[in-house]
Amino acid sequence: MPDKIDERRCSGPAAIVLIVACLGLTAVGAAWGCSAPPVADAQTLLSTRCSACHSPQRGQTTKKTRAEWEQTVTRMIGKGAKINTAERAVLVDHLAKITAS
To answer: What is the pLDDT, as a whole number, of residue 90?
Structure first.
């Protein structure tokens, strides 16, 4: 005789937790800008993402180390900058090269 599936295992608090977790991960992905296509060109990132709040010259004239740029870009993402992980790496690399202190 084949085993019966216990329908109780797929309902109740465990199912609700699973659904909420999936919805939460989807929301986090959207909040981090995962839906935006990555931009490989650092100049495009500066002119489209950073210049939304800053002058185009600001990132090019501010002298910072790579670690300082990592902190700055992370802080800007926390303030709402639409930069995904790949774009963050491109941007930090570029800013660190052109503004090495």
So the answer is: 93
- Pick from 77, 98, 91, 97: which is nearest to 42 by CA? 91
Predicted pLDDT at 77:
94
CATH of the domain at 38: 1.10.760.10
* Structure token digits, residue 12: 């109740």
Range of the domain at 20: 9-98
Q: What residues of the chain score a pLDDT lower than 70?
A: 1-40, 101
Q: Which amino acid is at 1?
A: M
- The Cα-based distances of 57 to 34, 54, 62, 84, 95 in angstroms read 27, 8, 9, 22, 12
Residue 27: the pLDDT is 53
Domain count for the chain, please give it: 1
